[in-house]
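Reviewers of the previous submission asked for a worked example of the structure-prediction workflow described in the proposal, so we include one complete record here. The input consisted solely of the amino acid sequence. No template or homolog information was supplied to the procedure at any stage.
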Amino acid sequence: MFQFAVVDSGMHPASADRPLSEGDALRLAELTDDELPALLEAAAHVRDRRWGRRVTYSPKVFLPVTNLCRNRCSYCSFRRSPGETGAWTMSPDEVREWLARGRAQGCAEALLCLGDKPEAAFGAYRRELGAWGQESTVGYLEWVAREALAHDLLPHTNAGVLDHEDMARLKGVNVSLGLMLESASDRLCQPGMPHHRAPDKRPERRLRMLEEAGRLRIAFTTGVLVGFGETRRERMEALLAIRRVARAHGHVQEVIVQRFRAHPSTPMRDAPEASDAEVAHTVAAARLILDADIAVQAPPNLSAGSTELFLQAGLNDFGGISPVTPDYINPAHAWPHVARLGEVCARAGFQLAPRLAIHDAYVDREGFLADALRAPTMAARLRLGEARTT
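From that input alone, the workflow returned the following structure tokens.
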């Protein structure tokens, strides 16, 4: 069905029922600019067969529980150490305030986001948790998630690398969990590279967590970072690594193609960013490499003006968009207004619709949703259904 220019040299066409082989997936890294339109067309066809012309987003409130982090990624403007300007940990009162605002603005998701292993690095942070009656970060996250549920919001937590026990604990109060793989390349962890001073960014550690999440039957979000020093081939290898884990356990609900954006306060402030065409190449590659039931997502605030291009590349989801809080990871890039994003989608022939933090397929799949979360999930699903018709 799909006619890549490289078919004649050995590339086999993909279909919605048969993603690319590993060899063909790696050859996507070699495509020329002239071959990009055929790649996008192939990916869009796969998307249309599985997902149709409906593209989704999750209305969320973003809770940056703490930006303390023991890693020092060269591109990150989010992390801080205690005492640095801009360091914060949300107090219980602040958590309740932002949850109430999110619920009042029609949010359905509470995104809990924080740095990796802050209590392993900072005694002041451990003492602050203790003052709130919490013995650990995971204990505090469990409390925050319960507060979110009390405000009729479904928690999704991205807390960096967690072990089996911590994920099992959080599964009881979260409808889904997340961890960006970013890259499967050890090269990027070498001296002078972006992940050299980030022990929790070692690919084997992050892939191990993805495997553990699968064994626990947790609906999971992961993804790749584009343009921070990786090669195209390394991107394809990361997508293949995600596919292997997803096929082993069936738990990866969505994969984010996240664009690196340079921040003036970081060592990579002058690093070149990937072009729109390069990000579109990765969106299309993700759609063709991953199995068709995995959603492919790209945050719209990081690529203003490229929405139609990414839809042409096979995108079917925009991820979380907040009417209440900024993107604390990329604060210079504001979320688009949902109504305006919907207009862009409509012009391209798509319907924009809200979704839950756990995709519908996992709500009804045995073992993925804790019993205590079923009633709030169904209530949130009903609210979003009403939002689509008003």
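Residues 301 and 334 are 6 Å apart (CA to CA). We consider this example representative of the routine output the project will generate in years two and three.
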